[in-house]
Amino acid sequence: MHYKFLLAAAAAASLALGGPALAQDKKKLAFVVNASSDFWKLAEAGVKKAQGELPKYQLQFRYPAQGTAAAQNSLMDDLVTSGVAAIMISSADPKNSIDAFNRIAAQIPLFTTDSDAPDSKRIAYLGSSNTDAGVQAGEEMVKAMAGKPGKCMGFVGFLGADNAKERIAGFRKAIAGKGIELVDVRGDDVDFTKARTNVDDVLVAKPEINCMVGFYSYNPPKIYEALQAAGKLGKITVVAFDEDPVTLGAVKQGSFASTVVQQPFEWGYQGMKLMAKYLEGDKSGVPQDKLIIVPTKVINKANVEAFEADLKAKIASAR
Fold it and tell me: Domains in the chain, please, with CATH?
Protein backbone atom coordinates (compact mmCIF):
# COMPACT_ATOMS: atom_id res chain seq x y z
CA MET A 1 0.00 0.00 0.00
CA HIS A 2 2.24 3.71 -0.60
CA TYR A 3 -0.23 5.95 -2.29
CA LYS A 4 -0.29 8.94 0.03
CA PHE A 5 -2.57 8.13 2.88
CA LEU A 6 -6.08 9.50 2.97
CA LEU A 7 -7.02 12.30 5.32
CA ALA A 8 -8.83 11.32 8.47
CA ALA A 9 -11.92 13.19 7.38
CA ALA A 10 -12.05 11.21 4.15
CA ALA A 11 -11.47 8.02 6.10
CA ALA A 12 -14.64 8.54 8.06
CA ALA A 13 -16.71 9.79 5.18
CA SER A 14 -19.03 7.86 2.93
CA LEU A 15 -18.24 7.71 -0.76
CA ALA A 16 -21.51 7.28 -2.57
CA LEU A 17 -20.41 6.00 -5.94
CA GLY A 18 -23.37 6.80 -8.07
CA GLY A 19 -23.89 10.52 -7.61
CA PRO A 20 -26.81 12.47 -6.15
CA ALA A 21 -29.11 11.50 -9.01
CA LEU A 22 -29.50 7.97 -7.62
CA ALA A 23 -33.04 7.36 -6.44
CA GLN A 24 -33.76 6.70 -2.79
CA ASP A 25 -35.42 3.36 -3.58
CA LYS A 26 -32.30 1.80 -5.11
CA LYS A 27 -30.72 -0.96 -3.05
CA LYS A 28 -27.44 0.02 -1.43
CA LEU A 29 -24.32 -2.14 -1.38
CA ALA A 30 -21.26 -1.26 0.72
CA PHE A 31 -17.57 -2.15 0.50
CA VAL A 32 -15.91 -1.59 3.91
CA VAL A 33 -12.11 -1.53 4.20
CA ASN A 34 -9.89 -2.18 7.20
CA ALA A 35 -7.93 1.09 7.39
CA SER A 36 -7.44 4.45 5.73
CA SER A 37 -4.75 3.58 3.18
CA ASP A 38 -4.38 4.39 -0.50
CA PHE A 39 -3.96 0.68 -1.20
CA TRP A 40 -7.73 0.73 -1.45
CA LYS A 41 -7.85 3.19 -4.35
CA LEU A 42 -7.83 0.31 -6.82
CA ALA A 43 -10.70 -1.43 -5.04
CA GLU A 44 -12.57 1.87 -5.09
CA ALA A 45 -11.96 2.11 -8.83
CA GLY A 46 -13.37 -1.40 -9.21
CA VAL A 47 -16.48 -0.42 -7.28
CA LYS A 48 -16.91 2.64 -9.49
CA LYS A 49 -16.68 0.48 -12.59
CA ALA A 50 -19.29 -1.87 -11.15
CA GLN A 51 -21.57 1.10 -10.46
CA GLY A 52 -21.69 1.78 -14.19
CA GLU A 53 -22.94 -1.75 -14.77
CA LEU A 54 -25.38 -1.86 -11.84
CA PRO A 55 -27.77 1.07 -12.41
CA LYS A 56 -30.38 -0.45 -10.10
CA TYR A 57 -28.02 -0.17 -7.12
CA GLN A 58 -26.29 2.55 -5.14
CA LEU A 59 -22.74 1.49 -4.32
CA GLN A 60 -20.77 2.87 -1.38
CA PHE A 61 -17.08 2.64 -0.53
CA ARG A 62 -16.49 3.18 3.17
CA TYR A 63 -13.45 3.75 5.41
CA PRO A 64 -13.78 3.24 9.18
CA ALA A 65 -12.89 6.18 11.42
CA GLN A 66 -10.00 4.05 12.75
CA GLY A 67 -8.34 0.84 11.63
CA THR A 68 -9.91 -1.19 14.44
CA ALA A 69 -12.50 -3.93 14.71
CA ALA A 70 -14.61 -1.71 16.98
CA ALA A 71 -14.71 1.10 14.42
CA GLN A 72 -15.52 -1.32 11.60
CA ASN A 73 -18.29 -3.01 13.56
CA SER A 74 -19.81 0.34 14.50
CA LEU A 75 -19.70 1.39 10.85
CA MET A 76 -21.47 -1.81 9.79
CA ASP A 77 -24.18 -1.24 12.37
CA ASP A 78 -24.68 2.26 10.97
CA LEU A 79 -24.85 0.89 7.43
CA VAL A 80 -27.51 -1.65 8.35
CA THR A 81 -29.51 1.06 10.12
CA SER A 82 -29.28 3.26 7.01
CA GLY A 83 -30.74 0.48 4.86
CA VAL A 84 -27.71 -1.05 3.17
CA ALA A 85 -28.75 -4.39 1.65
CA ALA A 86 -25.38 -6.20 1.65
CA ILE A 87 -21.82 -5.57 2.85
CA MET A 88 -18.37 -6.76 1.78
CA ILE A 89 -15.68 -6.13 4.40
CA SER A 90 -11.94 -6.55 4.92
CA SER A 91 -11.78 -7.41 8.61
CA ALA A 92 -9.17 -5.69 10.78
CA ASP A 93 -9.49 -8.38 13.46
CA PRO A 94 -11.49 -11.44 12.35
CA LYS A 95 -11.13 -13.51 15.51
CA ASN A 96 -12.49 -10.76 17.74
CA SER A 97 -15.25 -9.81 15.31
CA ILE A 98 -17.13 -13.11 15.01
CA ASP A 99 -20.06 -12.05 17.19
CA ALA A 100 -20.35 -8.70 15.42
CA PHE A 101 -20.13 -10.34 12.00
CA ASN A 102 -22.77 -12.89 12.93
CA ARG A 103 -25.05 -10.11 14.17
CA ILE A 104 -24.72 -8.34 10.80
CA ALA A 105 -25.04 -11.60 8.85
CA ALA A 106 -28.33 -12.32 10.63
CA GLN A 107 -29.74 -9.12 9.13
CA ILE A 108 -28.20 -8.82 5.65
CA PRO A 109 -25.84 -10.84 3.41
CA LEU A 110 -22.24 -10.35 4.56
CA PHE A 111 -19.18 -11.12 2.43
CA THR A 112 -15.47 -10.79 3.24
CA THR A 113 -12.48 -9.71 1.17
CA ASP A 114 -8.71 -9.37 1.73
CA SER A 115 -8.88 -10.69 5.32
CA ASP A 116 -11.39 -13.47 5.82
CA ALA A 117 -13.47 -14.43 8.86
CA PRO A 118 -14.18 -18.10 8.04
CA ASP A 119 -15.59 -18.87 11.49
CA SER A 120 -18.35 -16.31 11.01
CA LYS A 121 -21.59 -16.67 9.08
CA ARG A 122 -20.32 -14.65 6.13
CA ILE A 123 -21.62 -15.86 2.76
CA ALA A 124 -18.23 -16.12 1.04
CA TYR A 125 -14.71 -14.73 0.84
CA LEU A 126 -13.52 -13.02 -2.36
CA GLY A 127 -9.84 -12.14 -2.50
CA SER A 128 -6.32 -13.51 -2.58
CA SER A 129 -5.06 -16.77 -1.18
CA ASN A 130 -2.75 -15.15 1.34
CA THR A 131 -0.96 -18.43 1.94
CA ASP A 132 -0.17 -18.76 -1.77
CA ALA A 133 0.95 -15.14 -1.85
CA GLY A 134 3.28 -15.77 1.07
CA VAL A 135 4.73 -18.79 -0.71
CA GLN A 136 5.34 -16.64 -3.80
CA ALA A 137 7.14 -14.05 -1.69
CA GLY A 138 9.27 -16.74 -0.06
CA GLU A 139 10.17 -18.21 -3.43
CA GLU A 140 11.18 -14.75 -4.62
CA MET A 141 13.39 -14.32 -1.57
CA VAL A 142 15.09 -17.67 -2.26
CA LYS A 143 15.78 -16.55 -5.85
CA ALA A 144 17.03 -13.14 -4.77
CA MET A 145 19.39 -14.53 -2.11
CA ALA A 146 20.83 -16.88 -4.75
CA GLY A 147 22.21 -19.41 -2.30
CA LYS A 148 23.49 -16.86 0.20
CA PRO A 149 22.43 -17.50 3.82
CA GLY A 150 19.72 -15.11 4.91
CA LYS A 151 18.44 -13.69 8.16
CA CYS A 152 15.22 -11.90 7.32
CA MET A 153 13.02 -9.53 9.28
CA GLY A 154 9.35 -9.16 8.43
CA PHE A 155 7.07 -6.16 8.93
CA VAL A 156 3.27 -6.19 8.98
CA GLY A 157 0.26 -4.26 10.23
CA PHE A 158 -2.02 -6.56 12.20
CA LEU A 159 -0.09 -9.56 13.52
CA GLY A 160 -3.33 -11.28 14.50
CA ALA A 161 -5.15 -10.85 11.18
CA ASP A 162 -5.58 -13.99 9.10
CA ASN A 163 -4.12 -12.35 5.99
CA ALA A 164 -0.93 -11.55 7.92
CA LYS A 165 -0.63 -14.95 9.56
CA GLU A 166 -1.24 -16.77 6.28
CA ARG A 167 1.31 -14.70 4.36
CA ILE A 168 3.90 -15.25 7.06
CA ALA A 169 3.20 -19.00 7.17
CA GLY A 170 3.45 -19.22 3.38
CA PHE A 171 6.73 -17.32 3.40
CA ARG A 172 8.19 -19.60 6.08
CA LYS A 173 7.10 -22.66 4.10
CA ALA A 174 8.87 -21.48 0.94
CA ILE A 175 12.17 -20.63 2.66
CA ALA A 176 12.32 -23.79 4.80
CA GLY A 177 15.53 -25.70 4.15
CA LYS A 178 16.89 -22.99 1.86
CA GLY A 179 19.35 -21.45 4.30
CA ILE A 180 17.04 -18.49 4.96
CA GLU A 181 15.46 -17.73 8.34
CA LEU A 182 12.60 -15.38 9.11
CA VAL A 183 13.99 -14.21 12.44
CA ASP A 184 10.93 -12.23 13.53
CA VAL A 185 7.96 -10.19 12.29
CA ARG A 186 7.27 -6.75 13.76
CA GLY A 187 3.67 -5.51 13.88
CA ASP A 188 2.61 -1.87 13.78
CA ASP A 189 -1.23 -1.95 13.99
CA VAL A 190 -1.38 0.22 10.84
CA ASP A 191 0.46 3.04 12.59
CA PHE A 192 2.62 4.42 9.77
CA THR A 193 5.06 6.13 12.12
CA LYS A 194 5.58 2.90 14.00
CA ALA A 195 5.97 1.03 10.71
CA ARG A 196 8.98 3.20 9.89
CA THR A 197 10.35 3.10 13.46
CA ASN A 198 10.20 -0.70 13.44
CA VAL A 199 12.58 -0.79 10.47
CA ASP A 200 14.90 1.85 11.94
CA ASP A 201 15.10 -0.09 15.19
CA VAL A 202 15.95 -3.35 13.43
CA LEU A 203 18.74 -1.69 11.44
CA VAL A 204 20.35 -0.55 14.69
CA ALA A 205 19.64 -3.52 16.96
CA LYS A 206 20.11 -6.38 14.48
CA PRO A 207 23.02 -5.69 12.10
CA GLU A 208 22.99 -9.35 11.06
CA ILE A 209 19.70 -8.86 9.16
CA ASN A 210 20.43 -9.05 5.42
CA CYS A 211 16.90 -9.47 4.03
CA MET A 212 13.52 -7.96 4.72
CA VAL A 213 9.92 -8.55 3.67
CA GLY A 214 7.05 -6.08 3.96
CA PHE A 215 3.80 -8.02 4.33
CA TYR A 216 1.33 -5.09 4.13
CA SER A 217 1.30 -2.62 1.27
CA TYR A 218 2.61 0.37 3.24
CA ASN A 219 5.44 -1.63 4.88
CA PRO A 220 7.72 -1.80 1.80
CA PRO A 221 7.70 2.00 1.33
CA LYS A 222 8.66 2.39 5.00
CA ILE A 223 11.43 -0.16 4.49
CA TYR A 224 12.58 1.86 1.49
CA GLU A 225 12.63 5.11 3.49
CA ALA A 226 14.60 3.55 6.35
CA LEU A 227 17.14 1.82 4.10
CA GLN A 228 17.63 4.98 2.07
CA ALA A 229 18.21 7.05 5.22
CA ALA A 230 20.69 4.47 6.53
CA GLY A 231 22.54 4.21 3.22
CA LYS A 232 21.61 0.54 2.91
CA LEU A 233 19.46 0.49 -0.22
CA GLY A 234 20.62 -2.44 -2.33
CA LYS A 235 22.64 -3.88 0.55
CA ILE A 236 19.67 -5.59 2.19
CA THR A 237 17.54 -7.82 -0.04
CA VAL A 238 13.86 -6.83 0.03
CA VAL A 239 10.76 -8.65 -1.20
CA ALA A 240 7.55 -6.66 -1.00
CA PHE A 241 3.79 -7.02 -1.16
CA ASP A 242 1.38 -4.91 -3.22
CA GLU A 243 1.69 -2.15 -5.76
CA ASP A 244 2.53 1.03 -3.90
CA PRO A 245 4.23 3.49 -6.30
CA VAL A 246 7.31 3.65 -4.05
CA THR A 247 7.49 -0.15 -4.11
CA LEU A 248 7.14 -0.31 -7.88
CA GLY A 249 9.80 2.39 -8.23
CA ALA A 250 12.15 0.40 -6.00
CA VAL A 251 11.58 -2.72 -8.10
CA LYS A 252 12.21 -0.72 -11.26
CA GLN A 253 15.51 0.67 -9.98
CA GLY A 254 16.61 -2.69 -8.56
CA SER A 255 16.51 -1.66 -4.89
CA PHE A 256 13.84 -4.31 -4.23
CA ALA A 257 14.00 -7.79 -5.72
CA SER A 258 10.27 -8.04 -6.49
CA THR A 259 6.78 -7.55 -5.13
CA VAL A 260 3.80 -9.89 -4.90
CA VAL A 261 0.67 -8.05 -5.97
CA GLN A 262 -2.99 -8.69 -5.40
CA GLN A 263 -5.88 -7.50 -7.55
CA PRO A 264 -7.95 -5.18 -5.34
CA PHE A 265 -9.59 -3.67 -8.43
CA GLU A 266 -11.19 -7.06 -9.04
CA TRP A 267 -12.25 -7.34 -5.42
CA GLY A 268 -14.25 -4.15 -5.77
CA TYR A 269 -15.60 -4.89 -9.23
CA GLN A 270 -16.38 -8.58 -8.81
CA GLY A 271 -17.49 -8.12 -5.21
CA MET A 272 -20.24 -5.63 -6.03
CA LYS A 273 -21.53 -7.73 -8.93
CA LEU A 274 -21.47 -10.86 -6.77
CA MET A 275 -23.55 -9.20 -4.05
CA ALA A 276 -26.03 -7.78 -6.55
CA LYS A 277 -26.59 -11.22 -8.11
CA TYR A 278 -26.92 -12.79 -4.68
CA LEU A 279 -29.62 -10.31 -3.69
CA GLU A 280 -31.42 -11.11 -6.94
CA GLY A 281 -31.51 -14.79 -6.01
CA ASP A 282 -28.59 -15.94 -8.15
CA LYS A 283 -26.26 -17.80 -5.80
CA SER A 284 -24.25 -19.53 -8.52
CA GLY A 285 -21.28 -17.25 -7.88
CA VAL A 286 -20.74 -18.74 -4.41
CA PRO A 287 -18.71 -21.98 -4.64
CA GLN A 288 -19.21 -24.88 -2.26
CA ASP A 289 -16.09 -23.99 -0.26
CA LYS A 290 -17.20 -20.34 -0.13
CA LEU A 291 -13.79 -19.16 -1.38
CA ILE A 292 -13.49 -17.07 -4.54
CA ILE A 293 -9.76 -16.73 -5.14
CA VAL A 294 -8.37 -13.89 -7.26
CA PRO A 295 -4.76 -14.91 -8.09
CA THR A 296 -1.72 -12.92 -7.01
CA LYS A 297 1.28 -12.39 -9.26
CA VAL A 298 4.95 -11.50 -9.03
CA ILE A 299 6.16 -8.16 -10.35
CA ASN A 300 9.87 -7.80 -11.02
CA LYS A 301 12.15 -5.57 -13.06
CA ALA A 302 11.16 -7.34 -16.28
CA ASN A 303 7.42 -6.70 -16.08
CA VAL A 304 7.02 -3.71 -13.75
CA GLU A 305 6.49 -1.11 -16.49
CA ALA A 306 3.76 -3.16 -18.18
CA PHE A 307 2.11 -3.66 -14.80
CA GLU A 308 2.16 0.09 -14.06
CA ALA A 309 0.52 0.81 -17.41
CA ASP A 310 -2.22 -1.72 -16.65
CA LEU A 311 -2.86 -0.11 -13.26
CA LYS A 312 -3.26 3.32 -14.85
CA ALA A 313 -5.68 1.92 -17.40
CA LYS A 314 -7.82 0.27 -14.72
CA ILE A 315 -8.07 3.46 -12.69
CA ALA A 316 -8.84 5.52 -15.80
CA SER A 317 -11.57 3.06 -16.83
CA ALA A 318 -13.54 3.84 -13.68
CA ARG A 319 -13.60 7.62 -14.14
Answer: 8-128+263-295 (3.40.50.2300), 130-261 (3.40.50.2300)
